Structure of Guanine nucleotide binding protein, alpha subunit:
Amino acid sequence: MFSFDDSEDPIAAAIAPPENESPQERQLRILKEHTAKQVSDGIDEEITRERQQAKRESKPVKILLLGQSESGKSTTLKNFQLMCEPKTFRAERASWRAIIQFNMIRSVCVILDALARDLNPTDLPPSPHSSWSSRDSLHPDADLLALHARLLPLLQIEDVLAQRLAGPDAHNVPDSALTSTHLPMTTRRRPGKEVAVNSTVAWKSAFMRKPTGHESFDTQNVVDWDDPDDPGAALHAHSDDIRRLWGHPMVRQILARQGIRLQEQPGFFLDEIEAVTAPRYVPTDDHILRARLKTLGVSEHRMRLADPNGSITRQFHIFDVGGQRSMRPKWVPYFDDVDAIIFLSPISAFDQVLVEDHRVNRLADSLELWTSIVSNKLLEDTNMILFLNKVDIMQSKLASGIQLVDYCPAYGRRPNDFDSASRFLKKQFSAILKQSSPAPRIFYCPLTNVIDTKSTTYVLAGIKANLMHFNLKESYLIM
Ligand SMILES: Nc1nc2c(ncn2[C@@H]2O[C@H](COP(=O)(O)OP(=O)(O)OP(=O)(O)O)[C@@H](O)[C@H]2O)c(=O)[nH]1
Ligand SMILES: [Mg+2]
C-alpha cells in the first residue's frame, strides 16, 4: 500500500513551524497566518461576487406585463419601444394606420348601432352600459336618418379591414354586417367583435408594401396607396358625414341615454376626424399609443436597453399577454425566472363590466386577478410593479359625478375625488400583496396614464434603470 511520509514533502517542510520556536514567536506566527487567511478569504469572496454579478448581468431581464383585457399592457409595451427603439417603433406607422382607421370605423358603427337601437330597440341587444329603456326613444330626425343611410357602407369596410388584419385568425373577424337599402334604421346587425392578433408579424404586413430599390422605409413608401382595399379613400369620401354625425346633438343625447361614453372607449379617434381621414394620413406617435388592437396569447419582445450615459446595456425580454379570461391560463408557463411583473389595473373601469362576462365588475376582476398573481408560489420572490392605470379617465369620470361607492361599497363615505379614490385603491391592492407575501417584497405602485408618453417614459426609465442594476430594493417600497 502507498504510504506518505510528511518529512519527505518539500511543501510541508516549507510551511512547517520553525524548530525551537518560542511561545511569543508561535503566537505572532499564528496571528500573521490568521490575518493572511482573512485577506485571502476576502479576495475569494470578491471574486465569487464579481462572477455572480457578471453572470446576472449577462442574463436577460425578464418582465411580464399582466392585467385584464384593455388594462394598457400593449400600450405600456409601445412606450418601452418608443423609449428604447424609436426607429423600429416609427417604421411600423403604416401598419398602425390601418388599425386606427379600423378603430375610427368601429366608433362610427357604435353610433349607427345606437341609432338603430333607439329607433327599434328589439332589433339589437341592449347596450351593456345602461339600464336604458326602449320606451323613451328620441326618434332621429330626417337629417340623421339620411346620414345613417350614407354611412352604412362603412359597415362593410369594417368587415374587409377586419379580415385583412386578422389574416389566418379568421375566427376573430366580426360577424358580417347585413344592410338593408329599404329600412336602413331598422338594420339588424349583431355588434362586431374586436380584431385581435397573436402574431407580431402577420397583421403588420397586411397593408404594407416592400419599398423598392432605392426607396427608404419611410411611411410614405411602405403604405400601398393604390391598394383597392385600403380604406383611406372611402374614409376620406365619408369624412364630412362622419363629422356631421359625431357633431349632431341628438347623437350625443342618444349615446348618453344608452350609457355609452364613446370618448372613454379604447381606440376613440372621432376627435381627430380631419387628420385620420386625410387622403395620405400617417399616424403620429400619440395616435399609435391610442390605437386599440386586442392581444391573443403571449408575445415576446426583445430589446437591448442602455443606461442614460450608455455605459451599460442589458438585454430585456418583455412578454405581452392577452388579458381576457380565456387567455389567462396561457400566462403560467412564463412565470419561471421572472425579474419583475408590471401588473396593470385600469382603475377607471370601476363602473364597467367585463366584455367576456357582463356579470363581473372590472375593478372586482382586477383585484381578484391581482390576488391570484401575488399569491402564486412561482412568483413569491418576483418584484411587483403595479400601474394604477387610466387615471385620466378616472379623473374625468369622478368629476362628472359617477360615484365610486355605487360600484365599490367598501369605499363608504369617503369624498368622491381623485386623491381619495386613488389612495383608497392603492391601499386595497397593497393590503392584498401584504397578506399574500410570506416574506417582505418589493412593491412600486405609480398612478399612470400610459397614453401620455412623457409621464410614462419617466416611470419606465426608473424601472429600467433599477432592473439594469438589480437595485430595486434601494429605491422601492418594501412591503
Ligand atoms: N385614456 C387612456 N387610454 C388608455 C390608457 N392606457 C391604455 N389606454 C387605451 O386603452 C386601450 C387598450 O389598451 P391595450 O394596451 O390595448 O390593452 P391590453 O391590456 O393590451 O388589452 P388586451 O390585449 O386585450 O389584453 C388602447 O386603445 C389604449 O390606447 C390610459 O392610461 N388612458
Ligand atoms: Mg394587448
Q: What stands out?
A: The chain has 18 helices and nine strands.
